[in-house]
Amino acid sequence: MSTTTVEYRLLSGTRAAVGRAGAHHVIADRPEGKAGGKGLGFNGGELLALAVGGCFCNDLQALADDMGVAIAGLKVTVSIDFDGTLTLNGTEVASLSVLERYLQAEGRNAEQRELHVRADQRAKYDTVAKVLAIAQRSGLKRIGIDGND
Fold first, then answer.
1. pLDDT-based confidence at 148, cuts 50/70/90?
2. Residue 70 belongs to what H/E stretch?
3. Of 13, 61, 64, 93, whose CB is crowded by the most CB atoms within 10 A?
4. How many CB atoms lie within 10 A of CB 78?
């Protein structure tokens, strides 16, 4: 198994931190006016969602390459509120198992719509990961993760 190492250092004169992984950099900060944040970069929840989405997109691309399939569009939107409420197309979904039934039906549809996952910045990583896993198991091919604007 490979190891990935990242490093964060305080950005002088702010409460923000600069993260580095190899030659790549990112700024982590809170929104302006929140706990000393200046809005200089992504907040922790956004970074987490971006990481989950990036892993999911990279894995789907690798799987598609292995299968000799081109993915034309990849986008997902599911809202997960901080209190754990799941919504699908603006309607509250009672549980992950109910969401799975809806997504399985969509996975069987020859003309699949895009699934967009949108998680509240305070949502639990575990819930977001479960939603993405359900979407993948359901056979959805057009999945993306939206930012929380």
1. low
2. none
3. 93
4. 25
